[in-house]
Design brief:
two-stranded parallel sheet, about 400 residues, single chain, mainly alpha, two-stranded antiparallel sheet
Length: about 400
């Protein structure tokens, strides 16, 4: 029986499989996702074409199609037009049939033409990669067989399943259904785990939806984005140029006023600001809701969810119900009103920086005079915001 050019022990073949599939994951997250879809970094032609060639061998995916489908996902997130939202299709369908959902959308010419701009259109793309995706997959099968014999066919099968399950299924399905949210975005994205290693950093999906044009997906100090490690290595080798990363905030000691640096830091880290606001006010709202339950019929979880939503996201009945609850609690009314004002700060595009800075200072002054200890503490911390050096 043919055993190939290389013969390994059973664990050696497992390591080879993990290495091959991890290269594919790296190609998807670095080349297709961060470089092509979001333009967060530029790749040297050597790196760019290596990733494109490897993806042709291991997935048969076309850059234009993948880029277009992903951009449409961001533009239509959690709506009926989202190509693969578990909020629309159900998490089971996206996890197990995510590749089918991707293929259906990728075949729509309207999607590719509208969202697939700026992708490769050179000779090899037009004459090899686009018209002959099966040829690449077949070439990979022959190569695996030549290198490892019949066990190579098992390695090839694992390669073929890796992206459909982990990228199309886990990231698109689980990443919009289960996990933790460190940043308050309007869609249902979640960070699956804080250690983005197996799927190249794509586990940090909530972070990505908060800052889609960031080349770095980790946001907290304890989060790991191995894709970012690879990008930094490529950068050192002169094979990549990072264009943008999500801003990180630092706290300036003893700062007691809002200036334009504060304003810039608050706006650039607005999702983190809202998440911290929710965490800071959690106990205050919980205690107030518990107090209200003796006189007003409320579902605590529903009310807490409403308090974290912008009013336009609530139905007419929900807004009316929330209004009645707020009229029974001055504390909840204040917390809700101050949150709405804070979110409005970065939506006022017609105001000058000076005007917005004065509005932020006025917001902090009123928060500290509200008599709500948690709100006052949050405001004093907000005054200290500044952007950390890149």
């Amino acid at each position: 029986m043919y055993s190939g050019i290389f013969a390994f022990s059973w664990w050696g073949y497992i390591l080879v499989t993990l290495a091959f599939t991890h290269i594919t994951i790296a190609a998807v997250t670095i080349y297709l996702h961060r470089h092509s879809a979001h333009r967060a970094l530029d790749l040297h032609p050597i790196a760019s074409h290596f990733f494109r060639f490897w993806l042709w061998l291991t997935t048969g995916m076309q850059t234009k199609q993948w880029t277009a489908v992903h951009r449409k996902h961001h533009a239509r997130c959690e709506t009926p037009d989202d190509p693969h939202s578990p909020q629309v299709f159900g998490v089971a369908k996206v996890v197990w049939q995510g590749a089918d959902l991707y293929t259906t959308e990728a075949r729509r010419n309207e999607t590719c033409e509208r969202f697939g701009y700026g992708t490769p259109d050179d000779w090899i793309e037009r004459n090899v990669y686009t018209p002959h995706p099966v040829l690449g997959i077949a070439a990979m099968m022959v190569l695996d067989f030549a290198l490892f014999g019949f066990i190579g066919l098992t390695i090839w099968a694992a390669q073929m399943m890796w992206i459909p399950f982990f990228a199309a299924g886990i990231v698109n399905g689980v990443g919009h259904y289960w996990g933790y949210r460190s940043l308050h975005v309007l869609d249902a994205s979640r960070n699956i785990v804080p250690w983005g290693i197996i799927i190249g950093g794509e586990e940090l999906h909530n972070n990505h939806h908060a800052y889609p044009s960031s080349a770095r997906l980790s946001n907290k100090r304890w989060e790991i984005d191995i894709g970012w490690v690879y990008i930094r290595a490529l950068q050192i080798l002169g094979l990549a140029r990072v264009k943008k990363v999500a801003a990180r905030v630092r706290l300036v000691a003893n700062k007691t006023y809002c200036d334009q640096d504060t304003l810039h830091a608050v706006i650039m880290s607005r999702y983190d600001v809202l998440a911290r606001f929710a965490r800071t006010m959690k106990r205050t709202c919980r205690d107030e809701i518990a107090h209200l339950r003796s006189s007003v019929h409320v579902d605590p979880n529903t009310v807490k969810r409403w308090l974290q939503y912008e009013e336009h996201r609530l139905s007419t009945d929900e807004r009316q119900h929330l209004k009645r609850i707020l009229s029974s609690s001055r504390t909840l009314q204040t917390v809700h009103h101050m949150r709405q004002e804070l979110t409005g700060l970065w939506q006022r595009s017609t105001f000058t920086k000076e005007q917005l800075t004065r509005q932020l200072e006025d917001w902090c002054r009123r928060a500290e005079a509200s008599g709500i200890v948690a709100l006052s503490d949050f405001s004093r911390r907000l005054r200290r915001y500044d952007l950390a050096p890149a």
